[in-house]
Amino acid sequence: MTEVTVGIGPVSFEELLAVAREGATVKISEEALAAIADSRQRIEELAENPKPVYGVSTGFGALATRHIPQELRKQLQRSLIRSHAAGSGPEVEREVIRALMLLRLSTLATGRTGVRAETAQAYADFLSAGITPVVHEYGSLGCSGDLAPLAHCALAIIGEGVVRDSSGEYMPAAQALEAAGLKPVELAEKEGLALINGTDGMLGQLVLALDDLRQLFKLADLATAMSVEGQLGTDRVFAQDLQELRPHPGQASSAANLRTLLADSGIVKSHQGEHCAFVQDAYSLRCSPQVAGAARDTADHAQLVAERELRAAVDNPVVTPDGRVESNGNFHGAPVAYVLDFLAIAAADLASISERRTDRFLDAARSRGLPPFLADDAGVDSGHMIAQYTQAAIVSELKRLAAPASVDSIPSSAMQEDHVSMGWSAARKLRKSVDGLRRVLAIEILTAARGIELREGLDAAPATAAAIEAIRAAGVQGPGTDRFLAPEIEAVVQLLETGDLLAAVEKVAGKLA
C-alpha cells in the first residue's frame, strides 16, 4: 500500500485517487505542521480578544450576532458538529468519503484554517486506519461548504456518530477509535467550523468522475470502431486532414483513436472502392469524433477547474498569510457545480449516440445485411432486442440527470445563506451518469461483437478482434440461440469498469488518446 504525504501545496489527482480508491495511507509533512501551528497561534490570540470574531467567539450563520463567552466555546464547537450532521438517505460510497476527508485535510494543512495539529492529524489517522464515517446522500446545498457530509466526518473524529471500519463493519465511532488505538478529538475555538466549511465533497466526486470518464471516452471510441466495422461503415471520414479542418483537440484525439482501432480491418477493406453502393454513413457513425471529442474538451475544462480548486484553501473565516482572520465567500460551490453539470450533459450525449449505433445493428432495414435483432432464428429468437430497450431506459434517465442542478437555489439559514450552488447534488447525479454511460457502452460493445462475428469470412481489425476475444474469455458466448442476457451485459460492464477490456485492446493497438 502506498503512502501519500499531505503538505502545504495541493493534493494531486494521482494522490487523491490513491487514497480514495486504493486505500493509501496518509501523513502530514513537517512543513504543513509548522504552518498549522503558526495560524493556530493567531486564533488563540483572537480567542482572548473581547472583540467578537466570527467562528471563534460567535455563533454561526444567521446566529453570528451572538457573542459566545469563553466557558461555552468548546460546547459551541461540539454543538455545531452535532447539529450539522443532519444528513439523510442512502450511505455515500467509501471512495467519495475518503476523497472528501483527504481534501479537507489538505486545506487544514495549508495553515489557513487555524486548527490545531492534533485535529489535522486525526484526519490522517482515520484515513490510514481505513475508518470511514457514515455519510448520507442528502444534506449539502453546496454552499457554506458541503456542511452535512463534512459534519458527519467531523462527528466521527470527536468519537460520536457511526462509521465503517477497514473491513466495512458498521459500528459506533467510539468503538472504531478504540480498536484502532486512537483518541477522540476535543475541538477548540474555530475548529468545528474549519472542519465543515469546504467544497471537498463535490470536488472529490469531480476528480473521481474525471478519472472514470477519461477511460470511458476511449471505450466510447472502441464501441464506435466496432459499430463502424460491424455495420460496414467507412473509416475515410476519420482521416486526419478532414479532422484538421475543424481543429478541436478532443475531436482530433477521438478520430486518431478510430484510425488506430480500425487499422488493418478486413471488414472495412472488403467494401471499399467503386463497387460499394454506400455513399455516407449515418450521423451516429460519421459524427462520432465530433461528439466524443466535445465530451473530451468538456472534461479538459472541468479538469482545469478541479486543478484550481485543489490549490484552494476553502474556509470561512480564513487566516490570511499576513495573519488577519477574515470572512469570505470562497466556500460557494458554483465553479465546481457548473462543470459537474457540464459533464453530466456530455455523458448523456455520449450515451445517446451509442444507443443510436446499437439500434442500427438491430434493424434489418439499416444494418446492411445482418439478421433482424441479430437473432439466430428471428421470431423464435429475439436476439438483442431488449438489450437496446435497456440502453434506451438508461439514456432516458441520463437525459433527466443532465438537467443542471446548479441553476437551482433554495435560501437557507433565515435568509443569511440566500444563494447556494447545489454542487453536491450535481456531483451525486454525475456519479449516476457515469455508471449509466458505462452500461450503455457495454451493451453497444456486446452487440457490436455479435454483429462483427456474423460477418462471416471477413476479418476484424486486430484491435477490435482483441476486444471480442476478451469478451469471449469472460464467459460471454458468441452468436447463437437466445440466452439469459443480463449476466452477459454485466460481464461486459465489469470488463469496462476494471479496465481489462481497454487493456486488452491497448496491448494490441498501443495506448489510445
TrEMBL record:
InterPro entries: Aromatic_Lyase, Fumarase/histidase_N, HutH, L-Aspartase-like, Phe/His_NH3-lyase_AS. It catalyses: L-histidine = trans-urocanate + NH4(+). It is found in: Cytoplasm. Keywords: Histidine metabolism, Lyase. Belongs to the PAL/histidase family. One of its GO terms (cellular component) is cytoplasm. Its EC number is 4.3.1.3. This is Histidine ammonia-lyase. GO terms for molecular function: histidine ammonia-lyase activity. It is an enzyme of class 4 (lyase).
